[in-house]
Amino acid sequence: WKIPQPRLIMSIIGGAKYFTLSDRLETNFINGIINVALKSDAWLITNGYNVGIVQVVGQAINKVKLTNPKKSITAIGICKWGSVKDVEKITRVPNIKKQKIIDKHNIIDSSDEKLKKRVNGQRDLEMNHSHFIMLDDGRLRYYDTGDYRTRLCVQIAKLQHEIDFPGK
Questions:
Q1: Is 109 among the domain residues?
Q2: What is the Cα–Cα distance from 84 to 50, expressed in whole angstroms?
Q3: Which residues form the TRPM SLOG domain (predicted)?
Q4: Across the strands, what pairs with 135?
Q5: 29: in domain
């Protein structure tokens, strides 16, 4: 990915569905996250879905992109492959022939509007993130990434510690 090593990792976990903040609290939250991220070369790690607190974080990242184009924030979404809406479209290699899909009444192209409808349990990705790690355990519409995020953060911290304090 060729991104700078983080000096700080901020793992942002919050309600995906029932999330509300007052305008003042949301502004303070966004400003705080962004200020810390920019000053400390932090990586923001979220679930990557465009809902709840992660949506607010994405809006903050977008604000930075618009107001300070030379500044960048590394935001990594860790999500489940089987829960991402239109994952095939996102990851598909261009110029592949359209698939024909047989539904109960018709043969339809994979680009047909009928297929673009979100299936219950699928989420849109928050597109202001700079990177995504999609985990695939074969399950569909299942969000839980277990302790992967925690283990990743711990491993990154260990690597950084070894760089800062070799031989310890």
A1: no
A2: 10
A3: 1-156
A4: 80
A5: yes
Give dist(CA 15, CA 61) in Å, integer: 19
| Neighbour count for residue 92 (Cβ, 10 Å) | 11
Domain count within the chain:
1
Interval 105-115: pLDDT, tens: 555 455 544 44
CA atoms within 13 A on the CB side of 168: 9
Which pLDDT score, from 0 to 100, does residue 96 have?
46
For 32, counting Cβ atoms within 10 Å of its Cβ (0-12 exposed, 13-18 middle, 19+ buried), the class is exposed
155 within some domain: yes
* pLDDT value of residue 116: 52
Distance from C-alpha of 124 to C-alpha of 24, rounded to nearest angstrom = 27
Task: Please tell me the distance from the alpha carbon of residue 123 to that of residue 50, in angstroms, as a whole number.
Answer: 7
Query: Which residue(s) pair with 8 in the sheet?
Result: 42
8 A C-beta contact, residue 2 and residue 39 = no
- How far are the Cα atoms of 89, 94, 103 from residue 112, in angstroms, in the given order? 12, 17, 12
Q: What is the pLDDT of residues 73-129, one digit of tens each?
A: 999 999 888 788 877 777 665 554 555 555 555 554 555 444 455 566 678 899 999
